[in-house]
Design goal:
alpha+beta; 5-stranded antiparallel β-sheet; 3-stranded antiparallel β-sheet
């Protein structure tokens, strides 16, 4: 289009943006294949534009034409660029490097084998459907890990979740998964209590010495010795968790 009109590529982009703003064209394809590979992007003229400038449509063919024309109502397509052109433009802009993904989804290629371009494709689908890809992936990950899905299958599975006609609360499900992964302070302290039984520890800064028993501890500080029990033990366990109390290795 730019060559035929004698204008720059950017001028065509701006013109198409204006056409979209006035709802004179609608995208007929997404510009990427199912696997995120660049393809030509096509647009269809809207009936509004055809009515404005009196273009023939399927429902309103030109009187001089014997057959229906393919100008609108899901008819004429504008091919903005060939697949090869888009690939060259993308590679040039990225200087040969893969696209930089947001931190929230940067781990997906490493964990699934998907290309970064495929993740970009899924990000676009997620945005159009008011989802966050990181939420959908977190919900799908246990199943994907279980079946050992390859990159292509992971892509198709995530894509199917994103375009599901039934609205799903992926954000709520993802929040539940994140809560499962959050550390339980009480459980952590219980684990420390089991690990430190009958061991000796020293404080890294104040010289305190601790000898743990089963549920109690002998604490020595400045030649004073005390027996800790009950709630007093929680402070000692937290000291180990924070790294202030370290085991005496003999």
């Amino acid at each position: 289009m730019a060559d035929e009109a004698g204008v720059s590529y950017k001028t065509v982009q701006r013109a198409m943006r204006t056409f979209r703003e006035f709802e004179w064209v609608l995208p007929a394809t997404e510009g990427r294949s199912e696997y995120g590979v660049f393809e030509s992007k096509r647009y269809v003229f809207t009936p509004g534009l055809c009515e404005l400038i009196d273009l023939p449509t399927k429902s309103k063919p030109a009187p001089a034409l014997a057959q229906e024309t393919e100008m609108s109502d899901g008819a004429i397509y504008v091919d903005l660029s060939l697949k090869k052109d888009l690939q060259e433009i993308s590679i040039k802009n990225r200087k040969g490097q893969p696209p930089t993904l947001p931190p929230t989804v940067a781990r997906i290629p490493e964990e699934t084998g998907m290309l970064a371009t495929g993740v970009c494709k899924l990000l676009g689908v997620a945005r159009r459907n008011d989802y966050k890809l990181e939420d959908v992936y977190l919900v799908a990950k246990p199943y994907l890990d279980k079946i050992g899905a390859n990159a292509a299958r992971c892509y198709r599975y995530l894509h199917a979740m994103l375009v599901n006609p039934k609205k799903v609360d992926y954000a709520g499900k993802a929040a539940q998964e994140r809560r499962k992964c959050e550390p339980d302070p009480a459980r952590e302290l219980a684990n420390i209590a089991r690990e430190c039984r009958f061991k000796r520890y020293y404080h890294v800064s104040n010289g305190m010495r601790v000898r743990f028993f089963d549920g109690t501890a002998e604490v020595t500080r400045d030649s004073n010795c005390e027996l800790y029990a009950g709630e007093q033990m929680q402070g000692l366990y937290k000291g180990i968790a924070n790294g202030n109390l370290r085991e005496v290795v003999e």
